């Protein structure tokens, strides 16, 4: 039986072991592609894969768990083991990862008295319930149980959030009580304040650092922290950032491959490394995270390409070959191989087959909920997506102004099903002035949840509760008697294309095409405004013509030989009668005046 322990060095079967790890998030890569990505990691000469575990996908509703398909972490770990890869698993309740709500399930927001990431009894009970389901699956894959998991993370970058050591100890004990016996670690920014706040060094738990350059300086900080507590630990960068994430409306961030190679070499000369990301993948569905910037939250894009070692499709970039050469140079005994390469479908045009306005299919798409005042998305037991709020108002004067009070994140205001105005976070609450022609008028407000923050102090702020949270005012009073239509768009179920289509309304568009040989593809959304796309009943993510990404990646595993179906939900009234399937991503350059 193999052993792994942490002393002055990492010891595998009693011998010093250099961890050469790369991050692949199983939940961002189609299961059919796990082998491809993991093989390429091993072929580059690396020996370990690292992954987070997203609580919000595994327990989307309290007490309802999912470990199937793209969430089958056991299968992912088994494929890695079969390829000769060890694993580092980070199951902490919070993962950041530029992921919706940092991995927390949105139903936690229903309890406004509970405090997350603290020694709060209610919160820890939820964590315990989740770990009762998750950890037994991971226990089987520990190295001591003939699996491949070397170590587990307790919390993620906690030193950038709090310093509640009782909370960290509680998490540790929850893990130990559920038979986690492999070494534990924490990861934080590699400077004194975060290490002091987020580590458990006095309990003998390994602190690791997160950084993407200046390894000598950062490892020196980490070593000084060890020395302060008279601890002898190996140096490891748990997240060596080889690229970066992107937000809507910003230019794609790129890192020079040669500079990265030199920075990785500097780190490997001193310690072990986990490249974040090795393969970034895709934020399928509504799982993109959001950056907090003052009063404004800036949502991140669907692609998690990250300018990583493998591109979004999973193919090697120039960075891959440079780091593979570096491994061969520094560790000549390590076996390296040629990577696997995937191909895309040839470019083709797909024609529109059906279209229907949102309001024409609203009753078939959603189950109506009535209440006196508007309910938030969380109060509607909805995690992500959209909500239509509907009410009827009488004409008091020729022109009236309305205000949506305390709404998130973006709204379309319709009067008698005619779009009058769109507001984003910074405009919501301002006057919406409209002429009233009829004696009785229908108001529809389409609210979009654009993603919850994944990092920082706003994690559990009220701003992360979505939809209309206070109410809608006419003149100086709140309007009552509302109908709610939650639009989850997890599937295409309920969309009735037999209804009418109207210009300048949110609408659904169906495209159908035939595939003889299955390969990956990208859908060019340049001619559409904003919304989401579902391929063969699976939500592949958001698009927005702000850019920079104008395409959505579709892995081959979502396609099938023969008939295939694409449904576009578009909110801006901008569409085209054809869609283009293309071989490569299309990236828009954002001009200086647009930024």
From TrEMBL:
Domain Beta-galactosidase 1-like first all-beta: 374-487
All copies of domain Glycoside hydrolase 35 catalytic, residue ranges: 10-329
Gene3D superfamilies: Galactose-binding domain-like, Glycosidases
Membrane-crossing segments per the record: none
Top-level taxon of the source organism: Bacteria
This protein's record includes keyword Hydrolase: yes
Active site, UniProt feature: 157 (proton donor), 239 (nucleophile)
Keywords attached to this entry: Glycosidase, Hydrolase
InterPro entries, alphabetized: B-gal_1-like, BetaGal1-like_ABD1, BetaGal_gal-bd, Galactose-bd-like_sf, GH, Gly_Hdrlase_35_cat, Glycoside_Hdrlase_35
Sequence ranges assigned to domain Beta-galactosidase galactose-binding in this UniProt record: 507-564
GO biological process: carbohydrate metabolic process
GO molecular function, one term: beta-galactosidase activity
Similarity section: Belongs to the glycosyl hydrolase 35 family.
UniProt protein name: Beta-galactosidase
Organism: Vagococcus bubulae
